[in-house]
Every structure is written in structure tokens, then in C-alpha cells.
């Protein structure tokens, strides 16, 4: 089962700071997508010197998901003419979903898959780590459904409807 094009489907995950949920989604889809997908992540407003949350990296490593190359970055990196063309852009936090986005080259399909921010939990480290694991599992479940979609559901004409339907899953 392959995407009916010569290149992988490029997916950009957006969050506010690009340190937790979007980083988890990027790493998971690159792992699960087996070359059919190429995932990226960015933030609408990453803090200066923002880095991926150490707990996000920890739960990915525990799950056997590679973390090399993951970094926090602004969504401006993906809005310019030199950026990779995106086929699908998914916001994973409610705040980023409500912000005015750049005009994306090629007018990619969009969807919103909201998840609570595990790093915002006011709890001890053990409880926060469990929140990161739970968030990662929720994202993984939805991404497994995305990669299992038949090629016709990933075609440009259907991609937005398919991705948005997974938000209800």
C-alpha cells in the first residue's frame, strides 16, 4: 500500500512552542510512516532557545522511537519558498489552532487534532512523565490510523476530509 505519488506525504505538526506534542507527533509519524510519510514539526511562538521537552524525548526513547535531529523551530521555517512543500498541516494544540497561520505554499490540507499539554500539568515528575506517555499513546493511535488509510484516502482531493475525520477517532 503506497501513496500514489513519487514522494512521501509531507506532514507538518504545529503547536505553540514546538517542545512536546508536535515533537512527539513528528518523531512518531517518521517512525510509523515507513517512508510513505515525512513528518516535520514547528511552533507558532517558540521561546528563545526553545528545546524539545526532555520528558518528550524520554518517552520517545522508551518506546524505541529515534530522537536524533529533533529540535524546536518556528513555523516561519516552513512558510518560505525554500521550505519543503507540505501536503498536510495538523495543529495539535488548541492555542496554535486559533492563531493566524502563515500562508502555506501549495495550500496544503489542514486538520486539528487537539491534545492537552502534558508539560503544563501541575504535578510531580512521575505524574508528568505519565501524562507524556498518555499523550504519546493518543497521538500514536491516531497516526496508526492515518498510515493505515488506503492510498485513495491520502490523495490530495480526499486528504483534508480524511485527516479531519481522524480528529474524531
UniProtKB/TrEMBL annotation:
Gene3D superfamilies: 3.40.50.2300
Pfam families according to UniProt: LMWPc
A single GO BP: response to arsenic-containing substance
Taxonomy, superkingdom: Bacteria
EC number: 1.20.4.1
Listed CDD domains: LMWP_ArsC
Sorted UniProt keywords: Arsenical resistance, Oxidoreductase
Domain Phosphotyrosine protein phosphatase I, residue spans: 9-149
GO MF terms held by the record: arsenate reductase (glutaredoxin) activity
Claim: DNA damage is one of the keywords in the record: no
Full protein name: Glutaredoxin arsenate reductase
Originating organism: Tepidimonas alkaliphilus
Gene assigned in the entry: arsC
Amino acid at each position: 500500500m503506497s501513496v500514489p505519488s513519487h514522494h512521501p506525504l509531507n506532514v507538518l505538526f504545529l503547536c505553540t512552542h514546538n517542545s512536546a506534542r508536535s515533537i512527539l507527533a513528528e518523531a512518531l509519524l517518521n517512525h510509523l510512516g515507513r517512508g510513505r510519510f515525512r513528518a516535520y514539526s514547528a511552533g507558532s511562538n517558540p521561546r528563545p532557545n526553545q528545546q524539545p521537552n526532555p520528558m518528550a524525548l524520554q518517552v520517545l526513547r522508551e518506546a524505541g522511537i529515534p530522537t536524533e535531529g529533533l529540535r524546536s523551530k518556528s513555523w516561519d521555517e516552513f512558510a518560505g519558498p525554500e521550505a519543503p512543500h507540505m501536503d498536510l498541516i495538523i495543529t495539535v494544540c488548541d492555542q496554535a489552532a486559533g492563531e493566524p497561520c502563515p500562508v502555506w505554499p501549495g495550500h496544503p490540507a489542514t486538520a486539528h487534532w487537539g491534545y492537552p499539554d502534558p508539560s503544563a500539568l501541575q504535578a510531580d515528575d512521575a505524574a508528568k512523565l505519565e501524562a507524556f506517555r498518555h499523550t504519546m499513546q493518543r497521538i500514536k493511535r491516531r497516526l496508526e490510523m492515518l498510515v493505515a488509510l488506503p492510498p485513495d484516502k491520502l490523495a490530495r482531493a480526499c486528504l483534508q476530509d480524511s485527516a479531519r475525520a481522524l480528529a474524531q477517532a
